[in-house]
UniProtKB/TrEMBL annotation:
Protein name: Putative histone-lysine n-methyltransferase h3 lysine-79 specific
Domain of life of the native organism: Eukaryota
One example GO MF annotation: methyltransferase activity
Keyword check for Lyase: no
BP GO annotations: methylation
Taxonomic lineage of the native organism: Eukaryota, Metazoa, Ecdysozoa, Arthropoda, Chelicerata
Amino acid sequence: KKKEKKKEKKKRKKKEGKKRKGRKKEGRKKEKKGGEEGKKGEEKERKKKKKKRAEKKRKKKKKEKNK
């Protein structure tokens, strides 16, 4: 009886692990789907950063002129 219970527990644990693995794969699929969108987002971020950098440079030049 004890051995049978242990076997059942092991089976249950294996199944739980498989479920968890399945969830991980789903997340990966979502990432792959959003690949193009993700790239667009990155480009937008890069452009924003560029704009910020340009603004900082402009402000610096203004400060130096005022001196």
